[in-house]
Amino acid sequence: QVQVVESGGGLVQAGGSLRLSCTASGLTFDDYTMGWFRQAPGKEREGVSCISWSGSTYYEDSVKGRFTISRDNAKNTLYLQMNSLKPEDTAMYYCAAGPLYRDYKMFNYDFGYWGQGTQVTVSS
User: Fold this and answer.
1) Cβ distance 53 to 102 under 8 Å?
2) Tell me: the pLDDT tens digits for 42-68?
3) 64: which DSSP letter?
């Protein structure tokens, strides 16, 4: 019954911006850490960013200074603002929810609920 739905992906030129959104239902949204993962062809899924219920944030090194994660608990919605996009950001981006927050790394197994993914493609 828990549903996690991403939107906002698309094709953008290098240097451009996109904002991803994720809406979660069927859970108490403000009790969960929410995160964004991505997976490029031939690569393992990696954590991009996550945010705790209280607003503490974590960013993978390659996106620091370019991406900003935020959440609106009243709307059960998670956002990822992606600026200065690079071709290496091209991936399927997944929204996920989990019961705890880590400030040093994101692990797939910490997140029990996953969206279907939204494709981000950055052209050279």
Assistant:
1) no
2) 999 999 999 999 999 999 999 999 999
3) T
